[in-house]
Structure formats: structure tokens, C-alpha cells
């Protein structure tokens, strides 16, 4: 990933432009909906190389919005507002900031045509016209997936950016228009490059401890760690004159980190999924896979099918939730089920071996366990058996003890199996 960055930045030894986020909406303040906009913006701003220290949530109150803006001006160079651009009586963000800055609003002609077009066949009331307002002396952001236009203005050494509240509209507008605006307004000859490294089977704190010396002495490149999609991601960011300068810095640090964390390494890429890595590895090896699923309910097969090219590797899947299904479809021996139970290493072994034979695949993978909410066969929630049968090799059974919600146990079980096969 590469971005041009602010001409006032000195990322190696100085201060960077500061951005503050103000989310507007009484429904946010009351906790009726989650403030996902701020989470999204914070991550994007970090990727773009902006410092971001403060987020504020405020209700639909013009006077409080003015006071919060005045406070934000003391801390930030750029203020981003989300919400309050709609047609209802309490959607007053544009009008309030316009009054506060003494900067007039106008109806953007192109935007108004788009809004009117969206109301064809419906009655468009006067209050809908407010969605087409933008700063007369500012910049307009089109809304390709909604109606309310975004707008920005530079005034008294600050930049004010007003974006819609619905997350789908705000994210699309930021990705397609605001990012370019920020780069165009604050670019120079430096570039910001990032590399994303993903790890599985290690906790965020353990990973951080393993590379603590690199974190404590970081400079250029910088190191950031975050957890998501059941993996820990390390983001490396370097600044330089061009990618020929930043790429070797990133590659060198990535090599050092992966040397310490090789046992947990999944792959590299901004939005990489472990299911994508599995399909890629199996495709490269010209190997196929089949699943026998109980408590995962088809999740293992679905996540593979989500990846383009899955047809090259997935032979089939059998969801055998009950004892009868395991016996009748997968041919698990009745004596195994009676002696050891459905949730057992013995049953997982037969499920994996029999599904591999059923579908004539290179790998047969089984999942049997207790995802909750109650214990089963005397085994606690989080007890999991994952059978992995591979042609020409002894079958193994993984027995991770997992915690958390039913969904968490299901996903972690599936990803544990994926990771084991990736590492073979």
C-alpha cells in the first residue's frame, strides 16, 4: 500500500497533521447504535499517516456542536464530522458549522440533480433539499450510494470535513473521494508505504512481547499491532522519497519479525483471510480437501467456497450433526460412538478418514465438539476434536481448548484446521 503524504509532515523526526473525529447523532450518544464510523475513520487516518488522538460523540444539538468544534480546533488541524447531513429537523451539522465559521452554504447543482433523480416517482419535500447543501467556498464530495452530499472547507488554518452518518455512505465517500482530497491537499514528494503481516494461534499480548524491543525502538518503519478476524496483524509503515526506498525497509523489518514468529505466520496482505491462504496453498500443491462437520455446521466448507478458485480444491462436505448421521452417512462405527461418544478423538478420526475416502480427496478434515451453550456427553463447552486425515500419513487429532461464544468456538476450530494444513 502506498500514499502520498502531507507536505508539512516530518514522519521521521517531527510532528504530523492531527485529525479529530466528531460523530453527531443522539442515537449514538444514547448507545442505540454503535459508532462504527469512528472505528473505520481511525484506521484509515492511521494508514494515511495522520495522527489521531481524540474522538467525540455528541447529540443533535447545535450549540454543543459549536463548543465541541472550538475545543477540537485547539487540538487538531483537521476535523472530520460524521452524521447530521440528512433531511430531518435535527440534521443540522452543515448549517451549524456554516454559522460557526461564517461560511455560506449553497445548493450544489450537480448534487441536487442526483438527489432529485433519486426521488423520481416519489414526493420530494422541501427538507430534502438540505441534503444538497455544500460550502460555497469549499469542496463537494458526491454521494454515489446515497443522497446527502459531503463537503469540506479550509478556514483559519483548519480543515473541516463533513460526511454522512450512514456507514455504507460514509465509507464509500471516504474511500472514493475524501482520501484523494486529503492526499491532493497535503501531498509532497514523500510516500507512505505499508505492509501487513498476519499470525494465527498466538495472542496479541504474547506477540507484542515477542517483538517488544522492535516496538520500543521503532522509528521508520513504525510498528502497529491489532487483532481482527481471529488473527493478529502487524502493520509496518515506512516513509521515504519513493517505494524504492520504503520497500527494502519494510522487507527487512518483516524478515526480522517473521524469523521470531514463523510458527504462527499465515501470510501477507492488507485484507488477507486465512481461508484465502488455504485455497492458494492447496492449489499450488495440487491437493484437494473434504470436510466432515458437526458443530461447525458447514462453516469450514463455506469459508473455502467464499474464495474464488475453490472448485479446484474442495471435493465436498458432509454436515453430520447427529449420531445417526455420523453412522449412516460417514459410516462411523456404532461401537465407536457408544464407547467414546460423538465428541471424542476416536469419532473425529473415523469422521476424517471416512470423509476423505468418500470424496477421494487428499485431506479429510472433521470437526466434533461442544460449542455451547451447554455441556455435552460430560464434556465442557469449548472441548473440540479436529481430525485431519492425509493420504499416506497417519491421521492426527487436534484438541484445542477454546473459549468464548458459540461463534468464536466455531470459527477458531475451522481456522485451526486451516492453519495446520497450511503449515504442512
Give a concise summary:
The protein is an alpha/beta fold.
Query: Which architecture of the largest domain would the CATH scheme give at its second level?
Result: 3-Layer(aba) Sandwich
- Average pLDDT works out at 89
Spatial shape: elongated
| CATH topology grouping of the largest domain | Molybdenum Cofactor Biosythetic Enzyme, Chain A
Structural class comes to: alpha/beta
Rg value: 27 Å
What separation lies between the terminal Cα atoms? Answer: 30 Å
How many helical stretches?
Answer: 15
The overall strand count is 18
How many strands, which pairing sense, and closed or not: the largest β-sheet?
Answer: 6 strands, mixed
Total domains, how many? 3
Low-confidence stretches: 1-14
Q: Can you tell me the CATH superfamily of the largest domain? A: MoaB/Mog-like domain
Strand order of the largest sheet: 3-2-4-9-8-7
Helical content band: 25-40%
Beta-strand content = 15-25%
CATH class group of the largest domain: Alpha Beta
Subunit arrangement of the protein: single chain
Amino acid at each position: 500500500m502506498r500514499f502520498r503524504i502531507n507536505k508539512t509532515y516530518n514522519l521521521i523526526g517531527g510532528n504530523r497533521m492531527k485529525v479529530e473525529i466528531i460523530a453527531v447523532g443522539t442515537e449514538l450518544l444514547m448507545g442505540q447504535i454503535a459508532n462504527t464510523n469512528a472505528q473505520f475513520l481511525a484506521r484509515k487516518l492511521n494508514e494515511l499517516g495522520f495522527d489521531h488522538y481524540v474522538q467525540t460523540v455528541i447529540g443533535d444539538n447545535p450549540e454543543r456542536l459549536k463548543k465541541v468544534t472550538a475545543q477540537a480546533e485547539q487540538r487538531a488541524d483537521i476535523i472530520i464530522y460524521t452524521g447530521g447531513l440528512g433531511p430531518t429537523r435535527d440534521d443540522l451539522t452543515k448549517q451549524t458549522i456554516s454559522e460557526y465559521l461564517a461560511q455560506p452554504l449553497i445548493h450544489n447543482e450537480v448534487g441536487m440533480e442526483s438527489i432529485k433523480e433519486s426521488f423520481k416517482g416519489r414526493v420530494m419535500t422541501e427538507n430534502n433539499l438540505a441534503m444538497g447543501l455544500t460550502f460555497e467556498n469549499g469542496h463537494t464530495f458526491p454521494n454515489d450510494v446515497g443522497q446527502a452530499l459531503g463537503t469540506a472547507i479550509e478556514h483559519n488554518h483548519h480543515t473541516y470535513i463533513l460526511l454522512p452518518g450512514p456507514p455504507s455512505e460514509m465509507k464509500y465517500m471516504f474511500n472514493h473521494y475524501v482520501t484523494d482530497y486529503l492526499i491532493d491537499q497535503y501531498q509532497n514528494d514523500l510516500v507512505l508505504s505499508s505492509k501487513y503481516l498476519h499470525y494465527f494461534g498466538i495472542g496479541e499480548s504474547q506477540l507484542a512481547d515477542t517483538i517488544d524491543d522492535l516496538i520500543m525502538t521503532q522509528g521508520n518503519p513504525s510498528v502497529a499491532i491489532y487483532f481482527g478476524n481471529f488473527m493478529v496483524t502487524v502493520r509496518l509503515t515506512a516513509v521515504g522519497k519513493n517505494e524504492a526506498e520504503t520497500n527494502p525497509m519494510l522487507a527487512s523489518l518483516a524478515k526480522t519479525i517473521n524469523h521470531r514468529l514463523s510458527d504462527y505466520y499465515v501470510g501477507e496482505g492488507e485484507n488477507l483471510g486465512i481461508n484465502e491462504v488455504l485455497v492458494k496453498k492447496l492449489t499450488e500443491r495440487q491437493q484437494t480437501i473434504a470436510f466432515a462437520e458437526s458443530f461447525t455446521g458447514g462453516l469450514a466448507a463455506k469459508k473455502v467456497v467464499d474464495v474464488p478458485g475453490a472448485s479446484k480444491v474442495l471435493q465436498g462436505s458432509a454436515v453430520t450433526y447427529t449420531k445417526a448421521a455420523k453412522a449412516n452417512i460417514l459410516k462411523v462405527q456404532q461401537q465407536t460412538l457408544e464407547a467414546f461418544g460423538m465428541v471424542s478423538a476416536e469419532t473425529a478420526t473415523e469422521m476424517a478418514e471416512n470423509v476423505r475416502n468418500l470424496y477421494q480427496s487428499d485431506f479429510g478434515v472433521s470437526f466434533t465438539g461442544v460449542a455451547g451453550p451447554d455441556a455435552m456427553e460430560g464434556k465442557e463447552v469449548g472441548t473440540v476434536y479436529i481430525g485431519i486425515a492425509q493420504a499416506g500419513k497417519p491421521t492426527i487429532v487436534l484438541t484445542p481448548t477454546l473459549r468464548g461464544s458459540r461463534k468464536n468456538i466455531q470459527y477458531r476450530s475451522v481456522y485451526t484446521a486451516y492453519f495446520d494444513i497450511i503449515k504442512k
